[in-house]
Every structure is written in structure tokens, then in C-alpha cells.
Design brief:
mainly beta, WD40/YVTN_repeat-like_dom_sf, 4-stranded antiparallel sheet, WD40_rpt, Methylamine Dehydrogenase, Chain H, 1 helix, globular, Centrosome-WD_assoc
Length: 425
């Protein structure tokens, strides 16, 4: 699904043929599929309206108007039959049921980066709350939205919450002004508190491993710390240094190569798509000789939100690898071997890394750097792929299909679908 101003376009993934075209009341600012892909939510925050469309019954539609309360966020519940709307100034969360036409209210939700978290099985929801100048967490049962537990947290300014994939432990972390990671059980007991240091900028990024055995914490001191699920103590600390000295680490460096073509094999004028890929600058990876010095950028000390520390952390689906990005070294992606707890690979790009995401089915990482190329790494090697599109197509984000057979590449105004050939087993 994609939106063009007030139109919602639903396409077939394999052919990109338009299957449905819906017209909303205003310009769409957010879209989200229900978990079973039968409904699509379209939020128009400026108007305080959410419209829901059905793929099975194109004539059916639903309109939710929050009225004077306004709207700042909207999302599906895991069952795909309830919609959670957050009103302006975070006064409340309204839970709308598509089946029962009933409404539930959750008061005092906190305005923070990650204030709502669902367990992977969809049974429970945790909500960060702020009342009487204190932080709280409420845990609800998603089947009937009844309150299961309500407890206060030992935080100055709660910044985010996230469930472990097995749904047994809830991680809650403080604002970047104080390094504090809190781990709670389902019944609200504080299992452990982790604090690496004091009096400096703290946690910047957090990621659970798919097996729930590890919790990776990226911080402003350019390090990633891995906690284990038995004692919740640190088992390893990964430093992101500008100098890569270990001879066992593979450094792939992106290098540009001038476009070369056998003129006798070309028809002139060449097709437009072919011409754009032929005469744009190509790139490839070369293995650098260690030691390697990476480009290090010192952040401006007098600016807000300094570009420093570990901004991105993600585990591979098989738990074997961890990909990270240090914002002080914006052109590099670090890939760590979790079984050996060592640095395995560094990808040194020509441009700053915008985004990366693991293939949901195998250890294959896709990276984009704001140009018209997508980069793929797997334990077998690393490739740079030129996207054959007309004009200037700068990829700023990407998203894998759940099967891992294709991915959507997004630029500021356009998108394209990249199909990957599945290896024969």
C-alpha cells in the first residue's frame, strides 16, 4: 500500500498492478496494515480523523473522528480489530473496537519516543504514563483491555519501553541525560537495574535479540553493551574505534569505478533506463588491508542533538550477528559475531549510512546511503547494486518483504520494489 496525498493505492507485490484505489477525506499522513492484512488504517492528524478500509469488502469503510481532542498518533492492536488513537497533548489513548463498536480510554499516556509496546504474541500491552510528576507503567490484557498491573518506575524521565520477544521481560530506559536500564517482569517486579556510568549522556538505542537471550544497549560513549538474560549483567562491551587493527576483521571498502561499456554491444541511443544505469557512477567493494583508519567526525559541542554515539542497533534473525552504526563514524556499518563476541566485518561506505535492515529469514543485511544504490551483505560476501531507475533516485529508507524475496526502496518522492532471486537449496 502507498499513499499519494489523499489517495490510498493498493498494489500486487509481484506485478505492482493496482488492485484497489481509495479516496480519503484529506491528505494521508500515516498508513498501517492490520496484522491479518485485511484492513488498512489511514490517519489524517491535521483533521483528527482515521479512516479504515477493507480489502475483502471494498464498499465497507470506517471513519473515526476524535473531534476537539485532536490526534497525534494512531496504530493497530495485534489482533487487527482495535485501533489505538493518542489525542493531542497526550491526554489519553482511545481504544476503538471495529467488531463491538465499543470505546475504552487509557489516561495519562506519556509523550516519549516509545510509549506503547505489545508482546509478540499480542496478549499484553505496556503503556508508559506520567502523572503527578512521576513515571509509571501500566500493563493491559489486550483481549478485554483490563488493567493487569500498574507500577511506578525508578526513572527521572522515562524515554522508552520494549518487550523481550518471549514476552517475559519488559525493558524500560531513562532519558539520555541519565544512563539507566530497568528490567521488569510481567507482574511488575523489578528484576534488575543496569547503569554503565554516571554524569554523561546515556542510552541512545536498544535492541533485543530474537531469542530474548541478549539485550544490546547503544550509548553516547560510542559503545554497545550486551546484557545476558540469566543475571542481567554485562557480558561484553563493543567499542567502535576509528582505527580497525585486528587482522581477523574483514573491512569491505566501497570504491567508485568509472562506467565502462563495450560500445559494439550497445545500441545507440540506448534505452533510457539502461542509459541511466550505464552512465551513472558504478561502485564495488574491495577488501582493505588491516589496519584501516575510518573517517571520524567530531560533533559540534554547541549544537542540540549531537551526531554522536550508537544510533542504530539490530540483531540478525538467527541471533548470530549484530549490526551497529556509530554516528561519529557515519560512513561505516559494524557487524559483530555474537557467537564469538568479536568484530566480524566493517562496511566502509562512500556516503553516510541512512538506514539498514536485516532480511527477516536469513542473515543478510541491506544498507542504503542516500544514493541510487542498495548494498547487501551476507557471510558469503558483499555487493553493491545500482537501481536502474530514471532520474535522481536517492534511497533514504528500505523495508524487507516478510518472505525476504523482495524489498521496498524509498526516496523522498518515489518508491521502487527490488526483487531478489531465491537460491536453490
Amino acid at each position: 500500500a502507498s499513499c499519494v496525498q489523499y489517495r490510498l493505492v493498493v498494489r500486487d507485490v509481484s506485478t505492482l498492478q493496482i488492485l484497489q484505489l481509495y479516496t480519503c477525506l484529506d491528505q494521508i499522513q500515516y498508513i498501517e496494515w492490520s496484522s491479518d492484512s485485511l484492513f488498512i488504517l489511514c490517519a489524517m492528524y491535521k483533521r483528527g480523523i482515521v479512516q479504515v478500509w477493507s480489502l475483502e469488502q471494498p464498499d465497507w469503510h470506517c471513519k473515526i473522528d476524535e473531534g476537539s481532542a485532536g490526534l497525534v498518533a494512531s496504530c493497530w492492536s495485534p489482533d487487527g480489530r482495535h485501533i489505538l488513537n493518542t489525542t493531542e497533548f497526550h491526554l489519553r489513548i482511545t481504544v476503538w473496537s471495529l467488531c463491538m463498536k465499543s470505546v475504552s480510554y487509557i489516561k495519562y499516556p506519556k509523550a516519549c519516543q516509545q510509549g506503547i509496546a505489545f508482546t509478540k504474541d499480542g496478549r499484553y500491552m505496556a503503556v508508559a504514563e506520567r502523572r503527578d510528576c512521576k513515571d509509571f507503567i501500566s500493563i493491559f490484557v489486550c483481549s478485554d483491555w483490563q488493567l493487569l498491573r500498574h507500577f511506578d518506575t525508578e526513572t527521572q524521565d522515562l524515554f522508552g519501553i520494549e518487550w523481550a520477544p518471549n514476552g517475559c521481560v519488559l525493558a524500560a530506559w531513562d532519558t539520555c541525560l541519565e544512563y539507566k536500564m530497568l528490567l521488569y517482569s510481567l507482574d511488575g517486579r523489578l528484576l534488575s537495574t543496569y547503569q554503565a556510568y554516571e554524569w554523561s549522556l546515556g542510552i541512545k538505542s536498544v535492541a533485543w535479540s530474537p531469542s530474548s537471550q541478549f539485550l544490546a544497549i547503544g550509548s553516547y560513549d560510542e559503545k554497545v553493551r550486551i546484557l545476558n538474560h540469566v543475571t542481567w549483567k554485562k557480558i561484553i562491551e563493543f567499542e567502535h574505534l576509528a582505527a580497525v587493527a585486528n587482522s581477523k576483521t574483514i573491512v569491505y571498502k566501497e570504491v567508485e569505478k568509472s562506467p565502462s561499456a563495450e560500445t559494439e554491444r550497445l545500441s545507440f541511443p540506448p534505452a533510457r533506463a539502461l542509459a541511466s544505469s550505464l552512465f551513472s557512477t558504478q561502485s564495488k567493494y574491495e577488501v582493505s588491508q588491516v589496519p584501516v583508519s575510518l573517517q571520524y567526525i567530531k560533533p559540534a559541542a554547541d549544537r542540540a542533538n549531537p551526531k554522536m554515539g550508537i544510533g542504530m542497533v539490530a540483531f540478525s534473525p538467527d541471533n548470530c550477528f549484530l549490526a551497529t552504526k556509530n554516528d561519529n563514524i557515519p560512513n561505516a556499518v559494524w557487524i559483530w559475531d555474537i557467537q564469538k563476541l568479536k568484530l566480524f566485518v566493517v562496511l566502509e561506505q562512500l556516503c553516510a549510512v541512512q538506514s539498514f535492515q536485516w532480511d527477516p529469514r536469513q542473515p543478510r543485511l541491506a544498507v542504503c546511503t542516500g544514493n541510487s544504490k542498495v548494498y547487501l551483505w551476507s557471510p558469503a560476501g558483499c555487493i553493491s547494486v545500482q537501481v536502474p531507475v530514471e532520474g535522481d533516485f536517492q534511497i533514504v529508507a528500505l523495508s524487507w518483504h516478510p518472505t525476504g524475496d523482495s524489498m521496498v526502496l524509498l526516496s523522498k518522492d518515489n518508491f521502487c520494489v527490488c526483487y531478489l532471486e531465491r537460491e536453490e537449496v
